Amino acid sequence: MYREREASVQAKIISSSSMATTTTTALLHSQISLITANPSPPRNALSSHALQCPHHRSSQLQQSLHKRIVTRTNFSIQPRFGRRRAEFSIVCNAGRKIDESGEVGGGGLSREAMVLWAMEGVYVLWLFILPFAPGDPVWAISSETTKSLVGLSLNFFFILPLLNYGQLTVQKLLVVGINALEAPVLHPMSEGLFNFVIAWTVLFAPLLFTDCKRNRYKGSLDVLWGLMMFLTNTFLIPYMAIRLNEMDSESSPTEKSKLGVVMTNGASAVGLIGGSVCLLSILWALFGRMDGDYGTVAERWQFLLNYISSERLAYAFIWDIVLYSIFQPWLIGDNLQNVQPSMIGIVSNLRFVPVVGLVAYLYCLTPDQEL
Known about the structure:
Number of domains: 2
Largest sheet: 2 strands, antiparallel
Order of helices and strands: HHHHHHEEHHHHHHHHH
Radius of gyration: 37 Å
Structural class: mainly alpha
Strand order of the largest sheet: 1-2
Strand content: under 5%
Distance between the termini: 110 Å
């Protein structure tokens, strides 16, 4: 009897152990399936799994947590991870809206705009005020520099030098040039450099008047371009920064001025004139005034290097050429929709070539369309 009772007890113990083992195995399987079905979210990502409560949280609690994560400005709740650092990144991403152009919502400046405004400060300080650049600053400009600037202005687009170039013998007939106003005689390299930059500035006019973001600039484009003819990038750099501002939803497109209409409708003529003067400037710098004692091409090149390293005006023109070479493809790239569809590829490739790309843009503007 005693042995039968002992065997019955052992059987019950074995049965209980088997049930416990089965229950433990089932629990392990359920935990594994729960983990597989609800994997932990990435450390720095806010996904739908971060708001799920796998341990039988109610839907009301889930909504409460979601609301807290979105609305709190300092910290939020993200389980099982380093909280403060992870939650701070969540708040930053939700609190600031950044579009494709890099502009920050809420009226902030984009990185490009901040760089441009900093560039404007450096441009003005270095070229006009500080005495460290070659030549004299504005507050200590010499009379020789002033005289040279006046002479270059009188020789604008080589009109006077070509009108009263001198006496020409054509088919043994003496042709006397027009000498109502004598053109100042300057080194052809300085004349070529001056007129090259000014002609390039003229080419920018139709591009500015057809810029798709011109309405973000609240001033007059006529005045802006007129000032550019005298101080070039001093006024173009701020325009490039302002056009990156967010568009005011309440503002309406402004009508073009008379100058804007002329420049837009006559864009091909502007391109022809400006491009021709740029080409003439290069030829004049290398071969102009051959009857004077200005030396060979190599000697003229050496003069140009000395001119840039000793004269603030020439040094500033080099800055202008570099900045124009940056702004030209930038502006054209933003306005390729204004180009004839069949010419977009050509203009897109040529826009990186100084002057040439801008002339191509002006020739290929879409006709009979409000730009």
